[in-house]
Amino acid sequence: QVQLVESGGGLVQSGGSLRLSCLASGLPFDASVMSWYRQASGKERELVARISSGFHNTMYGESVKGRFTISRDDAKHTVDLQMDSLNSEDTAMYYCNAVTPRSGDYNSYWGQGTQVTVSS
Question: Under DSSP, is residue 64 helix (H, G, I), strand (E, B) or coil?
């Protein structure tokens, strides 16, 4: 059974930092593309950051470039999101996502999410 368990969310003041972590199990982690998404109240879910398998190439949403850093540890099956210089627009539920290859197709898995609230 695939599980993605996020942790590290909470309440932080504007300008502060948080580090989110996602622990994955039940899937071929080192072959999976791992991402963080977020969804603010009343808005659509958006991609925050993504890290590839293999060479660990990264990409970021425009609104978080230069402030957030995604990383992964294939030995521990974790993917982290370091969030710095947080502002109120970063308030959202943050979700971990894994996309794994399977017989010429792909499976996509989601965690339950962790809430990040930035107070101004």
Answer: helix
Q: Which residues of 49-77 are buried (b: 16+ CB within 10 A; e: fewer)?
A: bbbebeeeeeebeeebeeebbbebeeeeb
**How is residue 88 annotated by DSSP?**
G
- The two tokens of residue 104 are 């010429």
pLDDT digits (tens, 9 = 90+) for 78-117: 999 999 999 999 999 999 999 999 888 999 999 999 999 9
Q: How far apart are alpha carbons 83 and 13 in whole angstroms? A: 12
DSSP string, 50-92: EE-STT--EEE-GGGTTTEEEEEETTTTEEEEEE-S--GGG-E
Residue 12 CB neighbours (<10 A) = 17
> Cα 88 to the chain's mean position, in Å?
18
For residue 46, the 8-state DSSP code is: E
- Compute the distance between CA of residue 44 and CA of residue 33 in angstroms, rounded to an integer: 21
Compute the C-alpha angle 92/97/99, nearest 5°.
Answer: 155
Question: In whole angstroms, what is the distance from residue 9 CA to residue 36 CA?
Answer: 13
> Measured in Å, how far apart are the chain's first and last C-alpha atoms?
40
